Amino acid sequence: MLFQSKSQQVKQSELDYDNIPKHIAIIMDGNGRWAKQRALPRIAGHREGMKTIQKVVKHAVDLNVQALTLYAFSTENWKRPKSEVEFILKLPSRFLDQYLPELVENNVRVTTIGDFESLPEFTQEAVNQAKEKTKNNTGLVLNFALNYGSRKELIDAVQKISTSVKDGDLSTDEIDEELFSKYLYTYDLPEPELMIRTSGEKRLSNYLLWQLAYAEFYFTERYWPAFDEASLDEAILEYQHRKRRFGGL
Ligand code: FPP
What we know:
CATH class: Alpha Beta
Mean pLDDT: 94
Order of helices and strands: EHHEHEHEHHEEH
Helix content: 40-55%
Oligomer: single chain
Bound molecules: farnesyl diphosphate
Distance between the termini: 37 Å
């Protein structure tokens, strides 16, 4: 689907503003296909995808979402051609050069999850600067999953817990779901209530496997560069129409 017709737009009034998911996790997929459809190079899709991020962030701020986690680069993405990897890993710096003042103005706090230290210096520097400039902000947490893989996160947690047990700081019967969650990269965030994946793919791709246990999943055919404020409203409206039972009746 290339363009959104007016009829598909959710009327703002249809949304229940008291039932906005606290934490939304997004798999931003389809940048390459969006570009191909227009006979553009793949990187044009990533560039356009970056613009979508700002639209969605601004809208999440307006809707009072507490946290937005965006899958920007997975541990598997290193397998792509070197030039594309480099382009994607330079996007945080481009994005922040352009939008950091707006993020600050909107009281957004920038954070990341993933293996940060293995990212190139230029990525780390740009993101660290944004983290520093926004660390006292109290509004939306804009959490980039950068060099992120959920299985690695789980293994890291098991290793840290094992070390605590071995050192005598923790006993095995203290290990429960709550404690385990505290050892994950997302220890200070509420669990995502809504997971959105664009571009028609219906996989989790090693994304937040523990944290998404009870989330509602929303899949759209729309490619990430074509996703916009109205698309986010549509996803939230669908979430609001679902009955969340958490295993009960
Ligand atoms: C998926 O599309 C997209 C990515 C792997 C990269 C996503 C990155 C951004 C949108 C920009 C990140 C920016 C910041 C600020 C962190 P794809 O390339 O897999 O598309 P395809 O499946 O159509 O090939």
